């Protein structure tokens, strides 16, 4: 009997699928059952050709060879993972296999991983697609019962392929052009450069900001205070200190009158469920987690723990077919500390399932991130996993709670013909805020108003017991945190002045929920931005890069249009050829613009791979395993090949194993270059912080992979 080959994206996912399908016999890089063979990729197994593989003339970086626009973009297996590729290729083309099932992550990149592998293996067999939103056994079984033809996802593949090729064309050409023109290694990207531009723009606003002194006058009565405001402008700031002092003296000891009392009832509906970007924002605000750390944790909760649904989603809604699952999931959460909330929800005769929760039109490839219907064992989670899981559970349960209702009270008191405003808030119904009542309030205590106010009546007389003059300064805009930068990337349209275009860009942010974290990390890695506490700040190199590139290359508008175009391709509304033609025209424009060198901008060369003229290179650490021509040298951030300018991609970043508690220093790099594999290297487990022993392997590109022994 011929078998069906199932290809997953990672070994751990492959093992979970194999367990459900009863594939228990071990083969080389696979698990075999009566009907199925399950194998796996290790992320991307196939990549695009390097420029010099099209033509040897591109080995040396020269401006007269730009732009590099291959007639047909070609692919090849990645050297570091070629062994697993060959295993999959052999299985795909084996006579015992009649068809395939693509079981890579259900999204754009997962589709690309499978299709590139399928193409590079020169396989012609029919394939189907597994599309699931959680890794529970039940979800996998259900997914296999609703397998769809692979052709239904052709548009998703076309979108992924366009994204891959566009990034190559823009990044490769722009990086070479600006590196050659400014004699320093400059990384330029289709998404990373506009993201950097957003950070640089904010930094310039901060640098150019001139703080101004102003004063506020506070009148103090029995049991409450009031702040002076201008009757015409409603402004409380007084820019003249003498005027503020005179006003404070003028009201002291005087009797005033309450001239108006306004009570306004307000309500806040529950927030929407989490998509990945919103979860990353909240975890950055509450726990200080980077976007990448949150993604890693929620991916672990999805793959390893099977406690949450597919995380790389941009939807904040659920679909109608999930109603029965929702009830089951709520019941599974009837454990401490959620049982008190679950009990209240289960008392309801009918769950509220309005458009803010269930909306098929707003569910794209995947629905919002929610807990799965497995009974959670919280004791198995690491401290950080528990924080993220708790955030997802609370958000999920709170949407079934009533509105948060409160009353805002505004009292205006008149003293010697001057008006003073007092504000307070009275909570009427806590509703969904019950889940967040213990959260720390990010308020300036000086500016927060008391919730409770004395019972006052209109025309009631009050005496000014004291007055206070508060000296203040206008504040500069805040630096971006990862939370606020993620919002800016998601809403790229807000940086566009053209109203019609702004509307068009509502669905076209910078990057996707799945890639935004890696874009931020990439900007840090190449030295364009740096973290300072929770804030992100551009470096001098990053500021200068934005100064020299043309508007179109740094504009969120350009990339936002492209992301919208890629989305249109995946929905079958745009031809991929049309998209790629626009990219090729854009690349030609970039090269033309790069000729206009800004001589006033000079980059320091001390932290780059680009050797200065007449500067003696340091001692070589070893031979380059990639190009086999160059020597490996050290700079402040990495180990690199002396032939990098000739196209060699060898790089080992010193902080690449930081999360594992391992420093890639000169001695370690020397050993890796010589041995390629090092055993018994002590480090820590990234999630738990526990001490662990690793085996380190270096691939030809210089990347070091740590595997537990």
Characterize the structure shown.
Helix 9 (276-287) runs antiparallel to helix 14 (482-490) and helix 10 packs across helix 13. This protein has five domains: 3-146, Rossmann fold (3-Layer(aba) Sandwich); 162-207 and 481-594, Topoisomerase I, domain 2, CATH 1.10.460; 213-269 and 404-473, Topoisomerase I, domain 3 (Distorted Sandwich), CATH 2.70.20; 276-398, Topoisomerase I, domain 4; 622-708, no CATH class. The model is unreliable at 442-449 and 606-615 (pLDDT under 50). It is globular. It is α+β, with helices and mostly antiparallel strands and 709 residues long. Helices cover 35% and strands 20% of the residues. The strands form six sheets. The protein has a seven-stranded mixed sheet with strand order 2-3-4-1-7-8-9, with helices on both faces. Residues 452-471 have a biased composition (Basic and acidic residues). Residues 3-136 form the Toprim domain. It catalyses: ATP-independent breakage of single-stranded DNA, followed by passage and rejoining. It comes from Clostridium acetobutylicum (strain ATCC 824 / DSM 792 / JCM 1419 / IAM 19013 / LMG 5710 / NBRC 13948 / NRRL B-527 / VKM B-1787 / 2291 / W).
What's the layout of helices and strands?
Layout: E1 3-8, H1 11-21, E2 25-27, E3 30-32, E4 36-40, E5 46-48, H2 51-54, E6 75-77, H3 82-92, E7 97-103, H4 108-120, E8 127-129, H5 137-145, E9 148-149, H6 154-182, H7 192-207, E10 213-220, E11 225-228, H8 241-251, E12 255-268, H9 276-287, H10 291-303, H11 323-332, H12 339-346, H13 383-398, E13 404-415, E14 418-429, E15 461-463, E16 466-473, E17 480-481, H14 482-490, H15 499-504, H16 516-525, E18 529-532, E19 535-538, H17 540-548, H18 551-554, H19 556-570, H20 576-594, E20 622-623, E21 631-634, E22 638-641, E23 651-653, H21 666-675, E24 677-684, E25 691-698, E26 704-708
């Amino acid at each position: 009997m011929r078998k069906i080959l199932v290809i997953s994206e990672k070994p751990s996912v492959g093992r979970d699928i194999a367990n459900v399908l009863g594939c228990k016999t071990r083969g080389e890089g696979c698990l075999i059952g009566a009907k199925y063979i399950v194998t796996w990729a290790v992320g991307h197994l196939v990549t695009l050709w390097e420029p010099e593989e099209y033509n040897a003339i591109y080995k040396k970086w020269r401006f007269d060879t730009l732009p590099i626009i291959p007639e047909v973009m070609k692919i090849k297996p990645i050297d570091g993972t070629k062994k697993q590729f060959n295993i999959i290729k052999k299985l795909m083309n084996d006579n015992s296999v009649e068809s395939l099932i693509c079981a890579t992550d259900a999204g754009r990149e997962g589709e690309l991983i499978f299709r590139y592998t399928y193409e590079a293996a020169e396989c012609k067999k029919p394939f189907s697609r597994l599309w699931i939103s959680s890794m529970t056994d039940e979800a996998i079984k259900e997914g296999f019962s609703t397998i769809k033809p692979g052709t239904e996802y052709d548009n998703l593949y076309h979108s992924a392929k366009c994204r891959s090729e566009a990034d190559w064309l823009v990044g490769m050409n722009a990086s070479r052009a600006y590196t050659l023109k400014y004699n320093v290694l400059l990384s330029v990207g289709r998404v990373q450069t506009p993201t950097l531009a957003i950070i640089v723009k904010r930094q310039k606003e901060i640098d150019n900001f001139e703080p101004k002194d102003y004063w506020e006058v506070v009148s103090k009565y029995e049991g409450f205070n009031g702040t002076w405001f201008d009757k015409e402008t409603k402004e409380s700031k007084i820019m003249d200190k003498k005027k503020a002092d005179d006003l404070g003296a003028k009201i002291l000891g005087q009797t005033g009158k309450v001239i108006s009392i306004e009570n306004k009832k307000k309500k806040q509906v529950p927030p929407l469920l989490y998509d990945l970007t919103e979860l990353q924002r909240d975890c950055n605000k509450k726990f200080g987690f980077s976007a990448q750390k949150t993604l890693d944790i929620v991916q672990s909760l999805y793959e390893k723990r099977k406690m949450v649904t597919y995380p790389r989603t941009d939807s904040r809604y659920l679909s109608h077919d999930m109603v029965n699952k929702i009830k089951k999931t709520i019941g599974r959460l009837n454990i401490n500390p959620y049982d008190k909330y679950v009990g209240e929800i289960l008392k309801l005769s009918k769950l509220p399932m309005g458009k803010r929760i269930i909306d098929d039109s707003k569910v794209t490839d995947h629905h919002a991130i929610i807990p799965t219907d497995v009974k959670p064992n919280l004791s198995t989670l690491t401290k950080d996993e528990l924080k993220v899981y708790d955030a997802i559970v609370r958000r999920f349960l709170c949407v079934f709670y009533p509105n948060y209702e409160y009353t805002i009270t505004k009292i205006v008191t008149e003293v010697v013909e001057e008006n003073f405003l007092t504000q307070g808030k009275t909570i009427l119904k806590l509703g969904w805020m019950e889940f967040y009542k213990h959260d720390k309030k990010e308020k300036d205590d000086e500016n927060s108003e008391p919730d409770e106010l004395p019972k006052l009546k209109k025309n009631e007389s009050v005496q000014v017991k004291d007055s206070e003059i508060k000296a203040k300064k206008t504040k500069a805009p805040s630096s971006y945190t990862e939370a606020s930068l993620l919002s800016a990337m998601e809403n790229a349209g807000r940086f566009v002045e053209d109203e019609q275009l702004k509307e068009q860009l509502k669905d076209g942010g910078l990057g996707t929920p799945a890639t935004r974290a890696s874009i931020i990390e990439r900007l840090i890695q190449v030295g364009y931005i740096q973290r300072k506490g929770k804030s992100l700040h551009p470096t001098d190199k990053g500021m200068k890069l934005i100064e020299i590139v043309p508007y179109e290359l740094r504009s969120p508008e350009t990339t936002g249009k492209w992301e919208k175009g890629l989305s249109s391709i995946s929905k079958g509304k745009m031809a991929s050829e049309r998209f790629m033609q626009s990219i090729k025209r854009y690349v030609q424009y970039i090269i033309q613009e790069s000729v206009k060198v800004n001589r006033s901008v000079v980059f320091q060369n001390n932290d780059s791979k680009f050797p200065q003229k007449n500067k003696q290179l340091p001692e070589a650490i070893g031979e380059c395993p990639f190009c086999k021509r160059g020597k490996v040298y050290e700079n402040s951030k990495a180990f690199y090949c002396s032939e990098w300018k000739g196209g060699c991609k060898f790089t080992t970043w010193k902080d690449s194993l930081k999360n594992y508690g391992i420093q890639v220093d000169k001695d370690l790099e020397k050993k890796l270059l010589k041995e390629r594999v090092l055993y018994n290297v002590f480090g820590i487990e990234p999630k738990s912080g526990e001490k662990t022993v690793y085996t380190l392997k270096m691939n030809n590109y210089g990347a070091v992979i740590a595997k537990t022994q």
